[in-house]
């Protein structure tokens, strides 16, 4: 599978010309080092950087540079909430420190700082408050059973964040520098907030970029702020009875072809909250987002959605929506599930006593899922993402009718879901046999 691309795949020629031209211009001005990156598509390689002119002298804008990180440590450390407490579950408690880096169109990136966690200062006219010029990533810092702190494939998150910033006219940056800043924050606060005597715990990481430009005009922002925080977060995949999903109706649409569903921008989430809240009030965990008159299946809440069924030809398939229409997010957990399934479940005679699986990425409809359930071909289903991790699905409500999804022999999750989840957990938490896996990025701790 190719690396997460900085530019979206071309579809509509006119729109792509405008979008690609804007991305080229942004990269040339804000992060020329990324023009020849392997993550870039061919149409924006080998372009020279565009310098700025100041007093007749051409000088490039400063790029984000983690080696210039300035550290100011808190004098008022925050208490760590107890595991399983309401305080931890509130998702409002952050660790002692945060990362900040400011950018302006005249100078580029200022020196980043590691500083005490605290409020931001924004003018009421800030672009992000009016035009949704904001994007973010969702990651986790894990305390492994081998005592080490780990990130899970963080380079993919950093690449995707660059793609998201490009999509909404925010400044570019070298993804490797963002990763260094994230690791610095994790190394600083990880030892206290994820002590070695509490393996299997995690913190949620939220890298964010907002346009802080105080000009109210509808225009490309001239100021931006990058920040990274660590937040206490409860496990969300502990659902003994499985997830209940409410399929969306015609009046709900999360993303569409030619839009920005493939990017992790705030504008994707706000419009979905009303329907999400209503679904939860009716006893459902998430919305199963459908698209178009054919009810194509896309995502479950903010997670990617997978079904395991037996085709009418008798082949067991792991099916999820493809990326070609740019409707679903190229999730890091999604990508990892697919790679593990292709490497371990699709080869030979299967794995761990399971029948061999054919991995399929394509557009499929809710009617196909209903038919598989009615004909006894639906084997299991699950949602996968950073927040929910890998969560089995037990029931789906679609157009006035509800049907069950098999949950395996023990009634907790299907066997394919269980095996894939256990492999991912092994990598994330450094379980024996997985300690040195290349997807686990070990964070060197500050003692």
Automatic annotation (TrEMBL):
Its EC number is 2.6.1.42. It catalyses: L-isoleucine + 2-oxoglutarate = (S)-3-methyl-2-oxopentanoate + L-glutamate; L-valine + 2-oxoglutarate = 3-methyl-2-oxobutanoate + L-glutamate; L-leucine + 2-oxoglutarate = 4-methyl-2-oxopentanoate + L-glutamate. Its cofactor is pyridoxal 5'-phosphate. One of its GO terms (cellular component) is mitochondrion. It is an enzyme of class 2 (transferase). InterPro entries: Aminotrans_IV (IPR001544), Aminotrans_IV_CS (IPR018300), Aminotransferase-like (IPR036038), B_amino_transII (IPR005786), BCAT-like_C (IPR043132), BCAT-like_N (IPR043131). The modification N6-(pyridoxal phosphate)lysine is found at residue 264. The keyword Zinc-finger does not apply. One of its GO terms (biological process) is L-valine biosynthetic process. Keywords: Amino-acid biosynthesis, Aminotransferase, Branched-chain amino acid biosynthesis, Pyridoxal phosphate, Transferase. GO terms for molecular function: branched-chain-amino-acid transaminase activity. Residues 30-66 are annotated as: Disordered. PANTHER family: BRANCHED-CHAIN-AMINO-ACID AMINOTRANSFERASE, SUBGROUP IIII AMINOTRANSFERASE. Belongs to the class-IV pyridoxal-phosphate-dependent aminotransferase family. This is Branched-chain-amino-acid aminotransferase. The lineage of its organism: Eukaryota, Fungi, Dikarya, Ascomycota, Pezizomycotina.
């Amino acid at each position: 599978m190719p690396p997460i691309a900085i530019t979206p795949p071309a579809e509509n020629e006119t729109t792509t010309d405008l979008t690609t031209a804007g991305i080229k211009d942004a990269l040339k001005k804000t992060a020329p080092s990324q023009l020849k990156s392997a993550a870039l598509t061919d149409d924006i390689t080998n372009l020279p950087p565009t310098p700025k002119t100041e007093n007749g002298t051409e000088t490039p804008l400063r790029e984000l540079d983690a080696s210039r990180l300035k550290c100011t440590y808190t004098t008022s450390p925050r208490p760590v909430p107890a595991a399983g407490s309401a305080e931890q579950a509130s998702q409002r408690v952050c660790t002692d420190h945060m990362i900040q880096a400011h950018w302006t169109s005249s100078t580029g990136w200022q020196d980043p700082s590691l500083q005490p966690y605290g409020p931001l200062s924004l003018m009421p006219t800030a672009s992000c408050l009016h035009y949704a010029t904001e994007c973010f990533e969702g990651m986790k810092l894990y305390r492994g059973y081998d005592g080490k702190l780990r990130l899970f494939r963080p380079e993919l998150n950093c690449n995707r964040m660059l793609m998201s910033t490009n999509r909404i006219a925010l400044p570019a940056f070298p993804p490797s520098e963002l990763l260094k800043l994230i690791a610095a924050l994790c190394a600083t606060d990880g030892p206290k907030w994820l002590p070695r005597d509490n393996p299997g715990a995690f913190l949620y990481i939220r890298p964010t970029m907002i346009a802080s430009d105080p000009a109210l005009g509808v225009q490309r922002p001239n100021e931006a702020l990058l920040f990274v925080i660590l937040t206490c977060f409860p496990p969300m995949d502990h659902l003994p009875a499985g997830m209940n999903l409410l399929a969306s109706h015609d009046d709900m649409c999360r993303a569409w072809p030619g839009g920005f569903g493939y990017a992790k921008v705030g504008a994707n989430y706000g419009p979905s909250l009303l329907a999400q809240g209503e679904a939860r009030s009716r006893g459902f965990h998430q919305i199963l987002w459908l698209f178009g008159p054919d009810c194509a299946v896309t995502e479950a809440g903010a997670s990617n959605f997978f079904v395991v069924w037996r085709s009418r030809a008798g082949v067991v398939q792991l099916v999820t929506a493809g990326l070609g229409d740019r409707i679903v997010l190229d999730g890091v957990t999604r990508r990892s599930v697919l790679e593990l399934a292709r490497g371990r479940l699709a080869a030979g005679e299967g794995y761990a006593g399971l029948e061999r699986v054919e991995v399929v990425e394509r557009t499929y409809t809710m009617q196909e899922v209903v038919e598989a359930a009615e004909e006894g071909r639906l084997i299991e289903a699950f949602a996968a993402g950073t927040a929910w991790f890998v969560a089995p699905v037990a029931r789906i409500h679609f157009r006035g009718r509800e049907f069950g999804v098999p949950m395996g022999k023990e009634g907790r999750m299907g066997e394919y879901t269980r095996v894939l989840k256990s492999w991912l957990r092994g990598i994330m938490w450094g379980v024996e046999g997985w300690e040195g896996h290349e997807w686990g990025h070990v964070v060197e701790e500050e003692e």
